[in-house]
Design brief:
By secondary structure, the protein is of the alpha+beta class. About 40% of the residues lie in helices and about 20% in strands. The strands form 2 sheets. The chain has a 6-stranded antiparallel beta sheet. A two-stranded antiparallel ribbon has the order 1-2. The longest helix is centred in the C-terminal third of the chain and has 18 residues, at about 240-255. The two termini are about 25 Å apart. The relative contact order is 0.12. InterPro entries: GAF-like_dom_sf (IPR029016), HTH_MetabolicPath_Reg (IPR050707), Tscrpt_reg_IclR_C (IPR014757), Tscrpt_reg_IclR_N (IPR005471), WH-like_DNA-bd_sf (IPR036388), WH_DNA-bd_sf (IPR036390).
Length: about 260
C-alpha cells in the first residue's frame, strides 16, 4: 500500500463513498479501500478540508461533500460516456433488432442513463432515469461481478439488502456471489424474468483505464418459457449467447474509447 499514490487512495475512497446509500464509519472505509487506520484518518481529514468529504462527528461517519457533488454535476453536464454510448447502442440495436441500454451503478441500484429502443419493440421498465436493484438485473450483475469482494460485501451486508420483485433472484450474499462467479466465468451477465416476467437481458461491463467497471451495456429480448406448449411458429426465440457476443463487442468498443482495456 505504501507504493500506492495518495491520489489513487483518495479516488478509491471517493468511489466507495459514492457507492454507499448513506455515510459510513471509518472502519468500513478502511476495509473497503484497504487502508491502514492512520492513513485513512489523515486522508479523510485532507478530503474534508477540500470539501470532497463531510465528517458527521456525532454519528462517527463520513459521506460525500459538496465538492464531490460539483464534480458529479460537471460530469452530468458533459455526459461524455452517454455521448459516446448513444451511437454505439444505436448500431447495436440495428444489428440485433432488440432494445439496448446503458446503466451505471448507484449504491445497490443500477441507474439507466441511455436507452435505444428497437422499432416495434414494447417499452421497457429500463427507461432513462429509472433505478432497479442491481442484483436482479443483467447490467447490475455485469458491474458487481468486477467489483472487489469487499465492496460487494459492503453493499449487501444482510438479507434486507436483497430486494425482491417477482420471487426470484439472489436472496443472500452467498447466492449472489455464486451468480457473480458464473458471470465472470461466462464473460457476460444474464437475467431471465427477474425484472419483468417474459423478458430476459444479457449485459457486459465497460471498463476504465484502471479496469474498474463504470457502466454496463445490455440488450433486453423476449424470453418465452422453454416448456410452453404448442409455441407459435413465429415466436421470437433469440439466442442469448449470440446477443451476448454483440453486447460484449459494443462494451469493448466503449471501453477502448474511454482508455480502458477489455476484460477477458
Amino acid at each position: 500500500m505504501s507504493q500506492v499514490p495518495a491520489a489513487t487512495r483518495a479516488l478509491r475512497v471517493l468511489r466507495f463513498l459514492a457507492s454507499q446509500p448513506d455515510p459510513v464509519p471509518l472502519d468500513r472505509i478502511m476495509r473497503a479501500c484497504d487502508l491502514p487506520r492512520s492513513t485513512a484518518y489523515h486522508l479523510l481529514g485532507a478530503m474534508v478540508d477540500e470539501g470532497f468529504v463531510v465528517h458527521l462527528a456525532e454519528e462517527h461517519r463520513f459521506g460525500l461533500g459538496v465538492a464531490a457533488f460539483e464534480v458529479g454535476s460537471g460530469y452530468s453536464r458533459q455526459e461524455p460516456l452517454q455521448r459516446l454510448a448513444r451511437r454505439a447502442l444505436a448500431t447495436l440495436v440495428d444489428r440485433v433488432g432488440q432494445s439496448a441500454h446503458l446503466a451505471v451503478l448507484h449504491g445497490r441500484d443500477v441507474l439507466y442513463v441511455v436507452e435505444e429502443r428497437a422499432p416495434g419493440r414494447p417499452p421497457l421498465v429500463t427507461d432513462v432515469g429509472v433505478r432497479l436493484p442491481a442484483h436482479l438485473t443483467a447490467s447490475g450483475r455485469a458491474l458487481l461481478a468486477l467489483l472487489p469482494p469487499a465492496q460487494v460485501r459492503a453493499l449487501y451486508p444482510g438479507p434486507a439488502a436483497f430486494v425482491d420483485r417477482h420471487g426470484t433472484g439472489p436472496r443472500s450474499l452467498s447466492t449472489l456471489r455464486a451468480v457473480l462467479s458464473e458471470t465472470r466465468a461466462r464473460g457476460y451477465a444474464v437475467e431471465r424474468g427477474e425484472v419483468t416476467p417474459g423478458l430476459a437481458s444479457v449485459a457486459a461491463a465497460v471498463l476504465d483505464h484502471n479496469g474498474h467497471p463504470v457502466a454496463a451495456v445490455a440488450v433486453t429480448f423476449p424470453d418465452p418459457e422453454p416448456a410452453a406448449p404448442d409455441p407459435t411458429p413465429d415466436l421470437d426465440r433469440t439466442d442469448p449467447a449470440a446477443l451476448a457476443a454483440d453486447v460484449r463487442r459494443t462494451a469493448d468498443v466503449l471501453t477502448r474509447r474511454i482508455g480502458g482495456t477489455p476484460n477477458r
